[in-house]
Write a structure and sequence with these properties.
Largest sheet of chain B: none
Strand content of chain A: under 5%
Number of domains of chain A: 1
CATH topology of the largest domain in chain B: Growth Hormone, Chain: A
Largest interface: A-B, 49 and 63 residues
Strand content of chain B: under 5%
Shape of chain B: elongated
Oligomer: heterodimer
Number of strands of chain B: 0
Shape of chain A: elongated
CATH class of the largest domain in chain B: Mainly Alpha
Order of helices and strands of chain A: HHHHH
Radius of gyration of chain A: 21 Å
Number of domains of chain B: 3
Distance between the termini of chain B: 26 Å
Number of helices of chain B: 19
Radius of gyration of chain B: 26 Å
Order of helices and strands of chain B: HHHHHHHHHHHHHHHHHHH
Number of helices of chain A: 5
CATH architecture of the largest domain in chain B: Up-down Bundle
Helix content of chain B: over 70%
Structural class of chain A: mainly alpha
Distance between the termini of chain A: 59 Å
Largest sheet of chain A: none
Chain lengths: 92, 510
């Protein structure tokens, strides 16, 4: 710990608001060590965030039971593209 | 309701930063600097040496300090910048001769280089973290510019008055406590950490990505060019604007109000820029025409009042235009290289300004300041043409529309909450409850519907990662995404699915 590093003064506590942005990075094991330690420390005391983390895992498990064809939204993309083309034409 | 609370959350979180920006802009020595320099023996030659030393330090340090801000801490880099500023004013105040004062100027260069681009990166990521998208960024950066100019105006006036009653040196020493308090205010600011939410890339790759983004052909290039051009116009106006006053033999008493007018225009331009709809062709046309008209006035008019109005108006509009363009730059750049890229734009501005200043000086020496105004006019015309050409692309693409955040802002306690800032108001409960079946056909169907309804980038990432079970590296390659974009999009997608499932289980529980 370096006392001159302002990071260690006020940011030692992670807020729930910050944690929910980092869940996927946390699960991927992609957080730098210090952020990961902050996240673990936060999870130790925060039931709400533990629940959200469990929900993220549930979603990953449930999504894994789908196939690609189940979630194909090509039609929708084509429709959106058409709509934005029309919008573009009207702007001119 | 959610929108208002996100806005107040954002404002209360940013408050310490506004305070820090205001206090560090207070430079009581600025109005008396020329006088003091003459006192300690500066002549034209040594002023040129100082300017050259300063101009060499800033571009050398800008991008490295931006990369440091991205790899380590933006707040940390501002903290170092403020320390350099304190060192600069103390050495400045102590300096007995030209050599020592040049050292002070170099520390001032360190301050400018380190803070350039850093505040706007902090602001962008804070807006993103607090509100879930970047819509309020322009308003925020406009406020920062306003607060900054308020600090400049206040100290320009106060410094002059102060110098009447205390020695010139004292104005330097009296500036230091303001910067100290600014540093303390900054410690109270909770820095967003989006830029660190991934494993650190090797330094070489990050440096390469930063330079590539600033210099390479692509969607960002016209935006970078516009930012450099607007910054060039602004810097030229602030550096050379007073020369018109000299040429028109304005009385000494007019210099103060003239300078105060330019500084106030910086701030008002910031406020205006936060609300500017550049995408409306009529707005863009009126602003472009007015900027060019101001330049024409500067090349022709010999009436001091009209020249001053043209300069003030031009500064105001150029700052206003640069703000939405800054927003588009940050929209196009991932958080991990944000401060580095913003600093890169600063460096390019310097590198462009130096030859421009030489040209302007040469024309002005040969045939007067009014003719030199045409060089400004040429830059203004190029800027306006490029603006008209680029502005059509400013519509955020449908794919780039940010999703509604996974958790509404009012689910978290506000930032000024004494103990639990940013924590749950009402913590989410577990889905696993007695009597609730998680793994049912109905739940899987809900997940399927939620994924199908996602817009394309989030849809593509969650399908590749969670349905097809590909590795993060494969998905990045396949969809051509940076590691941080891939994870952000996936996190947003999972967040939307979570919200749908949460509603689903809540209905189930009833």
């Amino acid at each position: 710990m370096n006392p001159n590093n302002p990071d260690t003064v006020a940011d030692a506590d992670m807020a729930c608001k910050e944690f929910v942005h980092l869940i996927t990075a946390y699960l991927d094991g992609a957080l730098p060590d210090d952020l990961r330690a902050d996240a673990d420390e936060h999870l130790d005391t925060c039931d709400g965030c533990q629940n959200v983390l469990a929900q993220w895992r549930t979603i990953i498990a449930l999504a894994g039971r789908l196939t690609e064809a189940d979630v194909d939204n090509t039609d929708e993309i084509t429709r959106n593209r058409l709509i934005s083309t029309f919008r573009g034409l009207r702007r001119r | 309701m959610a929108v208002t609370s996100a806005r107040t959350g954002l404002e209360s979180r940013l408050r310490p930063m506004y305070v820090a920006v205001f206090l560090q802009s207070v430079g009581l020595w600025v109005p008396i600097e020329k006088l003091f320099m003459t006192d300690i023996g500066f002549d034209n030659g040594s002023v040129a040496v100082m300017a050259a030393a300063y101009a060499a330090v800033v571009p050398l340090l800008e991008v490295p300090s931006g990369i440091l801000a991205d790899r380590w801490s933006r707040r940390g880099v501002v903290f170092i910048a403020q320390s350099a500023l304190i060192v600069s004013v103390v050495i400045g105040g102590l300096s007995p001769n030209v050599g020592v004062y040049i050292v002070a100027a170099l520390f001032l260069g360190v301050f400018f280089a380190m803070q350039s681009g850093t505040f706007e990166s902090i602001a962008y990521d804070t807006v993103l973290e607090e509100t879930g998208d970047s819509t309020l960024f322009e308003r925020t950066i406009g406020r920062i510019r306003f607060v900054e100019s308020a600090g400049l105006v206040v100290s320009a006036l106060a410094g002059g008055v102060l110098a009447e009653v205390v020695p010139l040196r004292a104005t330097y020493f009296m500036t230091a406590p303001f910067i100290g308090v600014a540093a303390v205010a900054l410690l109270r600011f909770r820095e967003p950490r989006l830029h660190r939410a991934e494993e650190a890339e090797p330094l070489r790759e990050q440096v390469a990505a930063t330079y590539r983004t600033v210099l390479e052909r692509g969607a960002v290039r016209p935006i970078v060019a516009l930012l450099v051009l607007t910054a060039l116009l602004l810097q030229a106006m602030l550096e050379f604007g007073p020369l018109w006053m000299v040429a028109l033999a304005a009385s000494a008493g007019l210099y103060g109000p003239h300078w105060a007018g330019l500084m106030a225009a910086l701030g008002l331009g910031g406020l205006l820029g936060g609300r500017l709809a550049l995408t409306r062709p009529i707005t863009a046309a009126v602003i472009g025409a007015t900027i060019v008209a101001c330049c024409v006035v500067l090349t022709t008019s010999h009436v001091i009042g009209i020249v001053v109005v043209a300069q003030v108006l031009m500064v105001l509009l150029v700052v206003a235009v640069s703000i939405p363009i800054t927003g588009r730059l940050h929209d196009a750049v991932p958080s991990t290289i944000r401060a580095g890229v913003a600093s890169g734009v600063g460096t390019l501005t310097w590198l462009t300004f130096l030859p421009f200043a030489l040209l302007f000086g040469a024309v002005s020496d040969r045939s007067g300041i009014h003719d030199a105004g045409w060089t400004l006019g040429a830059v203004a015309v190029i800027t306006v043409v490029l603006l008209a050409w680029t502005v059509r692309g400013f519509m955020r693409s449908p794919a780039g529309v940010p999703l509604e955040p996974a958790f509404a802002a009012d689910r978290f306690r506000p930032d000024d909450d004494p103990q639990w800032a940013g924590h749950w108001v009402d913590p989410p409960t577990a889905w696993e409850q007695p009597g609730v079946q998680i793994d049912t056909g109905a739940t899987v169907a809900e997940v399927r519907a939620a994924i199908t309804d996602l817009p394309s980038p989030q849809h593509d990432v969650i399908v590749a990662r969670d349905v097809e079970r590909r590795s993060p590296a494969e998905v990045r390659d396949q969809l051509d995404l940076s590691p941080s974009d891939e994870r952000d999009l996936l996190n947003q997608a999972r967040g939307r699915v979570r919200a749908r499932l949460d509603d689903h289980f809540e209905e189930d529980g009833k």
